[in-house]
Amino acid sequence: MLSKLGFLTIGLFDEADPRRGHESTLEIIELGERLGFDSAWLRHRHLQFGISSPVAVLAAASQRTSRIELGTAVIPLGWENPLRLAEDLATVDLLAGGRINPGVSVGPPMQWENVKGALYPDTADAEDFSFARVERFLAAVRGEKVTSFSGYQGFEQFSDRVQPHSAGLASRLWYGGGSLRSAAWAGAHGMNFLTSSVVKAEESEDFEAIQLSHIHAFRAAHPDGDAARVSQGLVVIPTDSASADQISRYQAYAEKRTPRTLTPQGPARMMFAPDIVGMSAEIAERLESNAAFREVTEVAFALPFTFDHDDYVQILTDMATHLGPALGWKPTLA
User: Fold this and answer.
1) What total number of domains does the chain contain?
2) How far apart are CA 20 and CA 25, in angstroms?
3) Mean pLDDT of 16-29
4) Percentage above 90 pLDDT, the chain
5) How far apart are CA 233 and CA 303, in angstroms?
6) Within a domain: residue 334?
7) What is the pLDDT of residue 96?
8) CATH number, position 140
9) Are strands 39-42 and 4-9 parallel, antiparallel or unpaired?
10) Which phi and psi angles does 246 have, rounded to 5°?
11) Which residues form the domain of 182?
12) What is the per-residue pLDDT for 334?
């Protein structure tokens, strides 16, 4: 039975009016809290027209909400200094009263050959984009020593661990993975696991079977076993209160994206889950027949990238009032 219902947004904005897009994202998060959602998650986009600084947006959201958990899905660590990111996240977590759920991943930054001269002009060839980068981040968040010096230098006092330290943040760290290797690594390192609508076709070309195998690999490696937290993220678009125009646009959006779900895509053989559009009862029936969905109690349904603010209001409202209850979820209302 579904116990935690969340949603994920890219925070799309118009280059000519970026503030409006960011304000829309904050308004959507506020709406999510009023509707009883358990969590709101932000995607992370660099050099695109989506949120490039989710930690800053989460800081703003933390001051406009009081209950809903706030996460990132995900921050690509290839763009980040792990120690500095740990400082920022701990600060925001304290301001939010312990509601931040940072999700991260590793690998070379997208468009690496084109961006490395601006991102790492002096160290591009030395940067490590392996899991070791996550380990540095984990150590910093968990309060392990990051320097050999602590004490006083003159009148100034120094700590040997990241400050501020938010004691509960480490238990709310998530890894966003799409392969068996990443799932097992996240489990072995005691993280929570985010599995999305994109996975790597390694042992199968059946999306549900692949995702299920990742969940099993994660929990098999995790100290908490079957109790280890997994959140599934799929694109679902309920239409219970949608207008005829909205339904037409939603169906066209899903149909346009359907061909990529049929076979593995690109050299990495990535598999995409089909978007699910329809009445909440129909969506619930499809989800309950999904083997991977039956393994989780938490979801963060992804909002489509290119819809309007009013569309997101309708979709979230239907999720909270129709789809969630159809899946056994109950809203948390202040």
Assistant:
1) 1
2) 9
3) 98
4) 98
5) 10
6) no
7) 98
8) 3.20.20.30
9) parallel
10) -65, -45
11) 4-148+155-326
12) 65
pLDDT at 284 over 80: yes
Closest to 317 measured CA to CA, from 303, 306, 298? 303
pLDDT tens per residue across span 133-185: 999 999 999 999 999 999 999 999 999 999 999 999 999 999 999 999 999 99
Three-class SS string for the chain? CCCEEEEEECCCCECCEHHHHHHHHHHHHHHHHHHCCCEEEECCCCCCCCCCCHHHHHHHHHCCCCCCEEEEEEEEHHHCCHHHHHHHHHHHHHHCCCCEEEEEECCCCCCHHHHHHHHCCCCCCCCCCCHHHHHHHHHHHCCCCCCCCCEEECCEEECCCCCCCCCCHHHHCEEECCCHHHHHHHHHCCCEEEECCEEECCCCCCHHHHHHHHHHHHHHHCCCHHHCCEEECCCEEECCCCCHHHHHHHHHHHHHHHHHHCCCECCCCEEECCCEEECHHHHHHHHHCCCCHHHCCEEEEECCCCCCHHHHHHHHHHHHHHHHHHCCCCCCCC
Write the pLDDT tens digit of every residue in 62-105: 999 999 999 999 999 999 999 999 999 999 999 999 999 999 99
Contact call for residues 320 and 7 (beta carbons, < 8 A): no
- Side chain identity at 78, as an amino acid letter? G
pLDDT of residue 220: 98
Across 216-239, b (16+ Cβ under 10 Å) vs e yields bbbbebbeeeeebbbbbbbbbbbb
Tokens of 71: 């996460």
Question: Does the reported pTM lie above 0.90?
Answer: yes
Give a yes or no: residue 55 inside a domain: yes
pLDDT at 253: 97
Total residue length of the chain? 334
Q: Is 332 within a domain?
A: no
User: Beta strand 100-105 with 69-76: parallel, antiparallel or unpaired?
Assistant: parallel
